[in-house]
Amino acid sequence: MKTFQIICVVSLIFATSCTKKENKLNTKPTPPVAEKKENQLEKFDDIRQDNYFWLNDREDPEVIDYLERENEYNDQMTAHTKGLQKQLFEEMKARIKEDDASVPYKYNGYWYITRYEKGKDYPIYSRKKETLDAEEEILFDCNEEAKGHSYYRLVGLNVSPDNTRVAFGVDTVSRRKYTIQIKNLVDGTVYDDTIENATGSSTWAADGKTLFYTKKDAETLRSYKIMKHTLGTQVSDDVEVFREDDDTFNTFVYKTKSDKYIVIGSTSTLTSEYRILKADEPDGEFKIFQPRVRGLEYGISHYKDHFYVLTNADNATNFKLMKTGEGKTSKENWVDVIPHREETLLEDIEIFKEYLVVSERNNGLNKIQIKRWDGSQTYYLPFDNETYTAYVSTNPDFDTKVLRYAYNSLSTPNSVIDFNMESKEKEVKKEQEVLGGTFDKNNYTSERIWAIASDGTKIPMSLVYRKGLKKDGTNPILQYGYGSYGATIDPYFSTVRLSLLDRGFVYAIAHVRGGEYLGRPWYEDGKLLKKKNTFTDFIDCSKFLISEGYTSKEHLYAMGGSAGGLLMGAVINMAPELYNGVVAAVPFVDVITTMLDDSIPLTTGEYDEWGNPNDEEYYNYMKSYSPYDNVTAQEYPNLLVTTGLHDSQVQYWEPAKWVAKMRATKKGDNLLLLHTNMEAGHGGASGRFEALKEVAEEYAFLLDLEGITE
């Protein structure tokens, strides 16, 4: 989830009731007005008037001027919350253990650790040979590497099989175009090999000299080809080993946990295809595992002389597990290992020498099943909470009986647990510390409730709040939603969220259709020509919270980012009267224009999610809900919109155009604020504390609307 947010400033105070705003001064800042420049967009004899199309040029000084004027207006209109923002930031930061470290994991003879030092924003990556008592070897101190950069992100650390080199990717713009380099871990030097426009991830062949990596198209940012680099040669001489010509697909490369195979994957929303090559034959040719068939999704893992295939083959809507021999990998050779189950979504597997671990979801809840390969034992890890999150964590070691997993809930901090799959003994390796001396999980309650949608479907919601809640309609609620790509928003613990809960807020996650909370059919029922179910589900959840006395229209707030920002835009067009305030972070709101422009990053790969508007049926359906196209002369809730100038996923001009159009169209005097982070992209600031400032700005916006000043 993703944030940028507001900035602070002015002399506008909100009454405690949140229904009226009283201006202390005789004058208040005038919102910026974007110039209307007539522009008609025509498709299927339908003409759309887009007067703000000109905002899509980030190189135009006039565009930058408009964004900066919006930022200045935002600063002025929220100046009075500056003290609250600072207070929120300090208390959020105070809950975090600054000198923190990850639980070490062992791989290929080394223990790997990620740690933070007090007062520093960025991680330090290190390792210790054989034992945790060994001398620490620092791989990267990102605090040093980030100096001189307003944004810095290090990804894809990939150590060579002989432990002497590490490949890594760096982005200093927040555009998700990474530069791959290689560092010598013996003498600390960085090789001259510099690979531009990459995804940042890479994979070593068994020889430790051959590196496979993925290139991105410089304009669309689509991951479109796999390259092979040999250490010591010119990058310009790198060999192309695979090119994905279908622009609805993305490609990637990785090594199986067994280390035996290099795998090239190529996937779209609905279809998968893989190629395999033995890791000790880097100059060989990749072999297609199973040719792509539209609608056939599969993923592969290797164990002994078989591949294990997680797939939706044979109408296995919620997926099943199959296997096939190394020499016969096409679909006709696949046989069932775990058959399809109507009520259980099979999400992932983890392979160990003696055990198979299966991640499942049943009735919305995570399940972890453990099976011995010899068939002598099968059982589930016990979880007894009403709503929680549990997932398999980092397990790179193949020959071990210990499974590492994590557990948390909306009211319970995260724990990293080592579980002995043979003895069934567990050891809590780390419990998330909540500093500050005021947190006690017994002061909070989490629950799951079910709203009834307009079509009769039961929609689950996960809630957390301080104990003693009275259902008298006066509780402020922040309702969060996403609902796209089959992504499930699990009920996870958040230390920053305590700043809302401790001020009387209820936090609610609406598990709307379009995610996979209730299995793959839940996703299918919220995409393409059923996308509006996502929006109406969210609205029906809001109505349920009001009817059950959890809150009222005067105290209900909503938040969503990216595709969740599209959700926010659609919801406030359809039912603006339900919400006092809304935060739309990096929102995808100009749906048709974006989906018609195949030069924009990610567009072509999204056709199976939203539909292709070059088809008239999809064009008309998208137009019926696209937030930008459906702005009308009505009163909207108080609204904070955030974006990043360098966003690679939702281009900044979508929220900018949306705000400009609403300014010119909406009724009433509710707040409409746009904050553009002029230095960041889709994920916001890169430093952990800078990111907290952005959350503090969002929370201050909501608290101020609720009349909470400290």
Helix content: 10-25%
Q: What is the radius of gyration computed over CA atoms, rounded to a whole number of angstroms?
A: 26 Å
Low-pLDDT segments, ≥5 res: 1-26
Report the total helices: 12
Beta percentage is 25-35%
Total beta strand runs:
39
Order the strands across the largest sheet as they lie in space: 32-33-35-34-36-37-38-39
Shape: globular
Describe the largest sheet: 8 strands, mixed
Q: Please, what is the average pLDDT? A: 92
Secondary structure category: alpha+beta
State the end-to-end distance. Answer: 26 Å
Question: Can you walk me through this structure?
Answer:
Strands 32-33-35-34-36-37-38-39 form an 8-stranded mixed beta sheet, sandwiched between helices. The chain has a 7-stranded antiparallel beta sheet with strand order 9-10-11-12-13-14-15, with no helix packed on it. 17% of the residues lie in helices and 33% in strands. Helix 6 crosses helix 7. The protein has 12 helices and 39 strands. With 710 residues, the chain is of the alpha+beta class. Mean pLDDT is 92; it is low at 1-26.
Outline:
The chain is α+β, with helices and mostly antiparallel strands and 710 residues long. The protein is globular and about 70 Å long.
Task: Please give a handful of descriptors for the protein shown.
710 residues; alpha+beta; 39 strands; 17% helix
